[in-house]
Amino acid sequence: MTPPNEAEMVFDATGIAARARRAGELAPDVTLPDAEGTPMRLSDLWHRGPLVIVFYRGGWCSYCNLQLRAWQREAAALARLGATLVAISPQTPDNSMKTADDNALAFTVLSDCQLEAANGFGLAYTLHPDLVEYYGSVGTDIPVLNGNGQWVLPVPATYVVDTGGNIRFALIEEDVRQRAEPREVLAVIESMALNA
Predict the structure, then answer these.
(1) DSSP letters of 76-126?
(2) Is the model's pTM score more than 0.90?
(3) What is the CA radius of gyration of the chain?
(4) CA–CA separation, 57 vs 8, rounded Å?
């Protein structure tokens, strides 16, 4: 079965382009469990220094895994800038841990099963019936992987939040194959440090 054009189905039908949080707005503060089930509050993270938040669809998504591994290669640059990176998906903590292990990730992976972060940032959407049929046909049971019984995903997005909770960078991707380049995001953080 050929996959439907996800980009058209997501942005044309959901209004995400209009409602997603953008640069200049405040980031929503939510508490999510990490892969081991330990609650982590976003504001506790951004108070430490710049926070990079990467929303990804799940470990079943090859484009997401490529993105996560690209970020892992930038661990030293993030540390040098005093920045923290968290990756958020609607997967259960166990599935988030599997994603972290499979990709040898050293950064924190958070589980957003109840879609608090995805809804807070305006990124959640219900999959079009054609996508439900497609993912079902290839064995990707999103309601089970996410543990919430819903065919709902976040649009891939990358944010940088400053210590005041202000969004300084936002890239919300219409095309699930495209993601923010880590170097572009690191340049934003470097600029924030110079202008502090």
Answers:
(1) HHHHHTT-EEEEEESS-HHHHHHHHHHTT--SEEEE-TT-HHHHHTT-EEE
(2) yes
(3) 16
(4) 17
Q: Are 60 and 100 in contact (CB under 8 A)?
A: no
pLDDT in tens, 124-149: 999 989 999 999 999 999 999 999 99
Tokens of 21: 């949080």
3-state secondary structure of 33: strand
137: tokens are: 């046909």
- Rounded to whole angstroms, the Cα distance separating 145 from 97 reads 12
Tell the residue number behind the tokens 């219900």, with chain if given.
Answer: 126
C-alpha–C-alpha distance, residues 71 and 78, integer Å? 9
pLDDT of residue 176: 83
| List of residues 6+ apart from 58 with CB closer than 8 A | 64, 89, 90, 91, 95, 99, 142, 145, 146, 153
What's the pLDDT score for residue 159? 98
Interatomic CA distance for residues 151 and 142, integer angstroms: 6
Closest among 46, 74, 79 to 165, alpha carbons compared: 46
Rounded to whole angstroms, how far apart are CA atoms 2 and 135? 11
Distance CA 143, CA 104 (A): 25
Alpha-carbon distances, residue 195 vs 46, 101, 167, 192 (angstroms): 17, 37, 15, 5
